[in-house]
Amino acid sequence: MYxxxxxxxxxxxxxxxxxxxxxxxxxxxxxxxxxxDCGSCVRRIQxxxxxxxxxxxxxxxxxxxxxxxxxxxxxx
Length: 76
Ligand code: FES
Fold this sequence. Notes:
The chain is built from five helices and two strands.
C-alpha cells in the first residue's frame, strides 16, 4: 500500500528504511523523498515509525482533531 503517493513510496519501503536506521520522518525524507512534496503523508510515516502522532492526539482528546472532524462526520 502506498504511503506517499507523490513519490510512490510504499509502507514496505518506509519500514525497510526505518529498519536500516531512518527513525524520523526527516530521515525517511532524506532517504526517499517521502513527505517532501504535499506533506499529507507525514503523519502516516510517523505512525509507521512508531511515533504515533495521530493516535496519541486522539487518545489525549485533541480539540483540533475533534473540532475539525465534526463537520466531516456530519457531511458523511
Ligand atoms: S503524499 Fe507524500 S509528499 Fe505528498
